[in-house]
Every structure is written in C-alpha cells, then in structure tokens.
Specification:
The protein is mainly α. The protein is built from 3 helices and no strands. It is elongated and about 50 Å long. It starts with 11 loop residues before the first helix and ends in an 8-residue tail after the last helix.
C-alpha cells in the first residue's frame, strides 16, 4: 500500500464534507444517514406540494452533499487516513 495523503492535500469535496478537521468513519456514516433522512423528509414534503420549488432545491442540494460524503469516505479509505494530522 502506498503512502497516505495528508488531510490538507485532500480534494476539495473531502475538505468540505469533513470541515477540514479529522473525523471518524463512524461519524461520517452517521452524518450521511442523517443527510439522507433529511432528503427523504424534503422529498415527501415536495411530493405533497409540487408547486413548492424550495423543497425540490433542498432535495437536490441534499443529494449532492450526500454524494460528496460517500465520495469522501471512499477517498479517505483508499488514499487518506482517518487519523488526525500531526
């Protein structure tokens, strides 16, 4: 296995979803689950009132953030480390 990339040199989506701070895999997966639950709530509200474009925007943005979280977990597992930078 090659050398691990420090957190400061991670791609922008990893820095965005982790806030640039060290995190744990469990926290990231919990955050992903909460984001997907909020997306489901926004989707249900939007389906009950399709004229409200705000909830559609919330669904799209929420799915984008959830995708970034999935990609971040995958990137950290393959290239980075969950340990804090020293």
């Amino acid at each position: 296995m090659g050398p691990r990339v420090p957190r400061e040199k991670a791609p922008w989506f990893v820095q965005f979803t982790t806030g640039g701070r060290p995190s744990t895999r469990k926290r990231m997966l919990f955050s992903l689950a909460i984001m997907l639950a909020l997306v489901v709530v926004a989707l249900v509200v939007w389906l009950n009132d399709p004229a409200s474009g705000f909830y559609l925007l919330m669904v799209v943005v929420g799915l984008g953030i959830a995708l970034a979280q999935v990609l971040s977990v995958r990137w950290i597992d393959r290239n980075g480390t969950w340990a804090p930078s020293e």
